Amino acid sequence: MKRIAAIALIVLALCLLGYGAVRNVSAGTASKKIVYSSEVLSEDCFLCGNGMSEDSIPFYWGQENIALISLNTFEMKPIEINRYDIDGQMIEEAIGAVSLGGGASKDGGFSATVLLDYDRGYATGSMEFHDDKTLDIDKAVTFLCAECLNEILPQDIEQCFGVGVISLATKEIHIFEQCVTGFGLGDFYIDCDLKEPSRGSCQMSLFIVYCPIRYEERS
User: What are the φ/ψ torsions at residue 120 (nearest 5 degrees)?
Assistant: First the structure.
């Protein structure tokens, strides 16, 4: 009996060693940094260059707002929590009303419906992924230079959707991921709750808050 117990312990130890080796190999593989490449020059990049034609440049660039953006098509749907006049100045006064925003992308990649509360500075709603359920690197590289690609894309793109949030003030982009339930982007916080797939569709609830720093840092 003691001999059988000793053999069992040896087998268990060997199994544990083997499992540890497999995990180490996996960890070593995961630790290798992926570097993305693109033939798009920096001056032609849609973010850091002049890749957009003059008639397609969003008039809301520079505004203190965010937008939903498809990395596969670079189409944007602004979430205009902060209102601006035709001269590009922020309207800092109460409106006493709420409105609906969002809409469907032209190519059917994604759609979103959000309720905007201007006076309280938040938006709530949901988004549905269609063709943009997955991130297509071959499409993304046609819009962005290598530097922007490597700054935006995470190492594990299998967890990424083809849609993200872009700061219209800084052009910083954060991609939605399956395992991420919330993140900050500039003066905004985005809470994102992925719902269980239903009838082949993939939905995510959104709660977006405009929350700039309340107090100046003391010198």
Answer: -95, -10
**Average pLDDT for 110-119:** 96
- Domain membership of residue 143 (yes or no) is no
| Tally of domains in the chain | 1
pLDDT at 129: 93
pLDDT of residue 55: 55
Residue at 110 is within a domain: yes
DSSP state letters, 146-206: HHHHHHHS-S-GGGEEEEEEEETTT--EEEEETT--EEEETTEEEEEEEPPPBTTBEEEEE
Tokens coding 146: 């290598």
| Residue 189 half-sphere exposure toward CB, CA atoms < 13 A | 7
Residue 91 is assigned to a structural domain of this protein: yes
**H or E element at residue 37:** none
Per-residue tokens: 117: 């509360």
pLDDT digits (tens, 9 = 90+) for 64-80: 999 999 999 999 999 99
97 located within any domain: yes
pTM of the predicted model as reported, rounded to 2 decimal places: 0.80
What's the domain range around 78?
65-136+155-210
Residue 164: strand pairing partners: 69, 175
